[in-house]
Specification:
The chain is mainly alpha-helical and 95 residues long. The longest helix has 19 residues. The protein is elongated, with a radius of gyration of 15 Å.
């Protein structure tokens, strides 16, 4: 995904960060709780997959980072500030 497209998607409230992480979404459907954060809950299918080696911890961490960043940026009322934040985090570069 091009980084300038990421800006539009992160700023777009309809953006779904889960796109590109379908494997984690599929695993999460087997979690004991529908609102599982995949961090501390018992019965978490995502954590079980990490423990069993079916999902890398790095991939999960990338998902979690992207999710948190998308939530932070989408809450910003000033979209210019949101883009500046993303530039600082090296998430967006103009071509």
């Amino acid at each position: 995904m091009k980084k300038n497209k990421m800006v539009r998607e992160f700023v777009d409230p309809e953006f779904k960060v889960e796109e590109g992480y379908e494997d984690i979404l599929a695993l999460s459907r087997a979690c004991k709780y529908s609102n599982c954060t995949h961090i501390t809950e018992e019965g978490c299918a995502v954590q079980r997959a990490i423990d069993e080696g079916a999902l890398s911890e790095e991939r999960f961490n990338a998902f979690y980072k992207d999710k948190n960043e998308a939530e932070y940026v989408s809450k910003q009322k000033n979209k210019t500030k949101a883009i500046e934040y993303m530039k600082q985090r090296d998430l967006f570069k103009r071509s």
